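Bumping my old thread because nobody answered last time. Still need a sequence for this structure:
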């Protein structure tokens, strides 16, 4: 191949320069084209050989240009890729992570504790009948105990349940003893809302039925719960009180140490007692005994976690909620 042509091709840095080289050598007025045109002037015996030589040079130049074009193209592509490079290993910008609400965490923790004690977890409807919420639980129609649990009624005579106790009779109607169940859930009352009373809150109910279940078993169950929640040897206390659906009935409290003041205090949790014979009768049970207890989950969460106002649980204020991200 023509040495000068080779040097021209090699010197071309981009596709434009390469095109100029093509025009210079192979274009209409190019050097090779001129040489081909000049063939006619040669004596016929030289023409053939010279023609073959010029064509060979032409093909060599074309091949060199093609090779150079591919090289330039690859280099340009590599430069473009380098310029447009995206580092996919850079960490992305993340939004704030969500988390479980303190009440959800406390509920999960409680259910873990009771599952560990052999209780089955069951749930019931929030929209209840008067029968399950009151009647079957031995609240006579005009009894003043109903006033303590005033609630919201639908036009067809149903109500938003005031406690988780309606599940007692519902469960007994469809299951045979012996059994141990816990019922977590939302309950509603027509309350004058203040720092310790909400119109909607949560309870956890426990019901244990079998042969010869006694008050000592109830005492033991509350003690086991207290040990699991607040540590082995936590003190518990029962004080007599009245609920229509238990006899005898009591309020129960757990002794715990306030993390800020370091002082021991009684934490009043809820109600408990031996299941009333009229409740067993409403469920069609005979010859068994049992105990039940129920308490407010907000109440349990408020004091140990230092939430001074029950309304804070429901305001969705991140400044409050974020404080409990590490809890439990
Ligand atoms: C009852 O609801 C009974 N069903 C408990 C029970 C179950 C007794 C089984 C015997 C056997 P009481 O109305 O006291 O009882 O409510 C229980 C707990 O719910 C209270 O101790 C308190 O922790 C919580 N509680 C009651 N009213 C509210 C309210 N307005 N806001 C927040 N928590 C409340």
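Sorry it took so long. Here it is:
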């Amino acid at each position: 191949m023509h040495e000068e042509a080779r040097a021209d091709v090699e010197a071309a840095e981009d596709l434009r320069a390469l095109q100029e080289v093509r025009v210079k050598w192979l274009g209409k007025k190019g050097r090779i084209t001129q040489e081909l045109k000049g063939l006619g002037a040669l004596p016929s015996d030289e023409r053939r050989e010279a023609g073959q030589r010029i064509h060979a040079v032409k093909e060599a130049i074309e091949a060199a240009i093609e090779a150079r074009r591919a090289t330039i193209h690859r280099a340009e592509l590599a430069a473009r890729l380098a310029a447009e490079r995206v580092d996919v290993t850079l960490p992305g910008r993340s939004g704030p992570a969500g988390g479980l609400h303190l009440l959800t965490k406390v509920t999960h923790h409680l259910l873990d504790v009771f599952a560990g004690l052999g209780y089955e977890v069951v749930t019931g409807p929030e929209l209840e009948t008067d029968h399950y919420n009151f009647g079957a639980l031995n609240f006579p129609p005009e009894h003043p105990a109903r006033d303590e649990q005033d609630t919201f009624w639908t036009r067809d005579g149903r109500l938003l349940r005031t406690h988780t106790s309606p599940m007692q009779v519902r469960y007994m109607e469809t299951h045979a003893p012996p059994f141990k169940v816990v019922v977590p859930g939302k309950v509603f009352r027509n309350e004058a809302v203040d720092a310790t009373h909400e119109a909607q809150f949560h309870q956890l109910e426990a019901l244990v039925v079998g042969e010869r279940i006694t008050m000592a078993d109830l005492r033991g169950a509350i003690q086991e719960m207290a040990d699991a929640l607040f540590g082995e040897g936590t003190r518990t206390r029962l004080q007599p009180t009245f609920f229509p659906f238990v006899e005898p009935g009591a309020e129960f409290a757990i002794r715990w140490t306030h993390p800020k003041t370091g002082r021991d205090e009684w934490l009043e949790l809820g109600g408990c007692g031996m299941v009333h014979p009229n409740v067993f009768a409403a469920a069609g049970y005979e010859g068994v005994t049992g105990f039940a207890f129920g308490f407010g989950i907000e109440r349990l969460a408020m004091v140990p976690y230092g939430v001074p106002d029950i309304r804070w649980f429901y305001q969705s204020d991140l400044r409050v909620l974020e404080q409990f991200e590490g809890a439990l």
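The beta strands are 120-121, 127-128, 159-160, 179-188, 200-210, 236-241, 246-257, 264-275, 289-296. Let me know if any region looks off to you.
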